[in-house]
Amino acid sequence: MSDNLPKGRHVVYCDMCTEDNKQPARKTCMKCEISMCVQHLQAHLTTPVLLQTHPLTEPIASGNGGLVVTTKCPQHGKLLEYYCLDDFTCVCVSCAIEDQHRLHNMKTFSTAHKELLEKVQAEQQALLVKADGANTSLEKWEKNEREKLGRSSVRLIEAVTNLRDLALTRVQSSVSARMVSVKTSKSSLQAAKSEEDAFRFLQMYSQVHQDLENAKAVDLRKGLEPGSDRDKLLDVHLDHMLNNSSSSGNAHVGG
């Protein structure tokens, strides 16, 4: 065995070495409940009966009452030799063949360690695959959302442009309609100014006055000022479009 100590592990010393020459332990015998260095471990490694009946584990620290980690069954006082895969606990031979674990799936420590280690590795790999799949799905979702946002932006710009054009057309039509009164009054005034006969002028004046008053009552700037009904109507259309776009996006995320 190598004399190099495992890094990052608490050093456990041999229980069989003299106090003035304590050597680091290499294994702990669960049956003898002692930790042994390379030299004192040889008997356990070379004697067939000890090799078969005395399970060895990585060094376990000892306290005043024996090993810090108990190696014996608290119920039967026998050595813990098996692992119950159903209850996830270490058991002794009496637990395995007589008590509540006798019908359970029992394994020796070495077999249980191997099988559970393989299971942990497999589950870890499955989690990695699952995480990778989630990341891929998230990236795909983000790409789709960016593309959808780009398309929505184009549609929104087109819709705003169309709404502005429509509003401009309506305002132009409204102003043009109001300009009729102004043009009419201008024509009446021009005709009155051209009339040299006093009687005819006075006969015309009533209509000229009416046309002039109508023209003066016309507000050609109506609908062009900020906050007008036209703008409010446009804002309502835009809010409706944005809310519909947001609702569609949330529905997509929820799905």
TrEMBL record:
Entry-linked InterPro entries: E3_ubiq-ligase_TRIM/RNF, Znf_B-box
Domain B box-type: 73-109
Molecular function terms from GO: zinc ion binding
Domain of life: Eukaryota
Name of this chain's protein: B box-type domain-containing protein
Any single Pfam family the record assigns to this protein: zf-B_box
Keywords: Metal-binding, Zinc, Zinc-finger
Metal-binding is among the record's keywords: yes
